[in-house]
């Protein structure tokens, strides 16, 4: 009889363990996934949404003109502009927003804050715009870039 009572107690304990594992607990947390767009994406202007991945950009001047004036927006930390000047040309660049630094990064490094650049190499030249100010960068920066490519004087 003692064996049967031990067996019954062990069976009841085992049944209790099984039943407690099956019932839902009140402390269960529900994981929610937030799939709403980030604040930066919501802050984008409607005109820029179609240009999401438009950096880098190719700059082409019109025939008979030396100057290119473009109004653009930047959402990342930097944006590159590609130009293809001839050897001997003089390149001058400026940007309307003083929080953006303007440098030539390829084929040579040049800071346009120090003046114009005399082209000495063939091929692609990369002008980089980069956020360069204290404080946090706004999600979208609108600016006007002016690139002036003067032909070499013979």
Automatic annotation (TrEMBL):
Keywords, comma-separated and alphabetical: Signal
Region annotated Disordered, chain positions: 33-54
Origin superkingdom: Bacteria
Signal peptide positions on this chain: 1-26
Keyword Signal on entry: yes
Protein name according to UniProt: Lipoprotein
Organism: Moraxella cuniculi
